[in-house]
Every structure is written in structure tokens, then in C-alpha cells.
Amino acid sequence: MAVIDIQRPRTATGARAVPALLAVLALVHVYWATGLTWPAHDERALSLAVLGDVVSFGPPVVLPLAALEGLAALAVFARVGGRGGRAAQWVTAAVAAGMLLRAAVGVVWIVVGRDGSGAAFPWLNAFLYTPLCLVFGWAALRAAR
């Protein structure tokens, strides 16, 4: 009896966390679409902490983001599991590019500064958003290859 050895593609362990992060982001955006603003006390404070500027977090803005993140999570999950073909590879590469671009912009914001954003954004950007985008962007890039 012949034994067939089917191996899954070799991916970095961190690549498995990328679809989980995207799914969590999608759920957070759906949560914000309900009008709830945790962890901030109101929409203005949430916007300043998350984006460094006052922007709407209403359903017309955050629900399309949630849908995009959810679909991206599915595609990256498929890619990490060795499924999805070229489409999953391209979506995973796009996720990597988006995250690495956000990390680069985050570094610029750290160096140049970001006026008018309140106290939370510069710290969250420097110690949470930018490092996470760099790590997850790199993991997604490795998964896309």
C-alpha cells in the first residue's frame, strides 16, 4: 500500500494570526456601526484615538470596512491553509501591502508628529498601531509568497 504524503505549504507561524486579526477588526467595525464607541466615551474621542482626526464612525463608513476586512480574512485564511489559488494569493499580497504602507505612514507620523489629534493617538500609533501593522504586514507578505 502506497502512502501519499500531502504537505501543507510552509508558512510562518505568524501568518496564521493575520486572518484572525482581520476578523477581529471586522467585528470591531461592526460593533462601532451599532453606535457603541468602546473603548472611548464618544465618537469624537474614538475617532481621535483611532485615526488622529475627527471622522464619522457611522454605519455607511465602518460597515464597508468590516465587509472588506471579513473577505480579506477569508482569503488570507485560505492562502495560509494552502487553498484559494491565485485570488487568495493576490488578496494576501494586497493585505500585506496595505499593512506595510500603514506602518510606513505610522513611522512618518511618529517622526513628524501629528497635530490636533489629542493625547491618545500619538502613543497608540507609536506603540500599538505601527508595530502591529509592521509585524502583521510582514507575516502577510510571507504568506503571499
From TrEMBL:
Residues that span the membrane, as ranges: 20-41, 61-78, 90-111, 123-141
Keyword Hydrolase attributed: no
The UniProt record lists the keyword Calcium: no
Keywords recorded for this protein, A-Z: Membrane, Transmembrane, Transmembrane helix
Highest taxon of source: Bacteria
InterPro entries (UniProt xref): DUF3995
Protein name according to UniProt: DUF3995 domain-containing protein
